[in-house]
Amino acid sequence: MQGIQVSKTEFKAKALEYFRQVEQSGEHVVVTDHGTPTLVVRPFHGLDRDPLEILSGTVVRYDNPTDPVDVDWEAGR
């Protein structure tokens, strides 16, 4: 995930410039407070995207998906 980090002070002074940069490049901007990330400005993606596209890449590793699950749970009520 690409992006840049800026302080709150710098972001306040150049907010419109950062908004335009996010819109044009699609990359996000991380705003920090004393070096600690506090918020992210990122492009808006509407809900009209395919749910599988949204989930793509979120499962990093899934070993032995056919093995039994060792958890007791109650199905249906």
Describe this structure in words.
The protein has a three-stranded mixed sheet with strand order 1-2-3. It has helices spanning 8-13, 15-25, 51-55, and strands at residues 3-7, 28-33, 36-41. Strand 2 (28-33) and strand 3 (36-41) form a beta hairpin. It starts with a strand and ends in a 22-residue tail after the last helix. The protein is elongated, with a radius of gyration of 20 Å. Helix content is 29%, strand content 22%. The chain has a domain at 3-55: YefM-like fold. It is of the alpha+beta class.
Which architecture name of the domain at 3-55 does CATH use?
3-Layer(aba) Sandwich
Strand content: 15-25%
Element string (H = helix, E = strand):
EHHEEH
Q: List the total number of helices.
A: 3
Report strand order across the widest sheet.
1-2-3
Question: What would you report as the Rg, rounded to the nearest angstrom?
Answer: 20 Å
Query: Could you say which structural class the secondary elements and strand pairing correspond to?
Result: alpha+beta
Distance between the termini: 42 Å
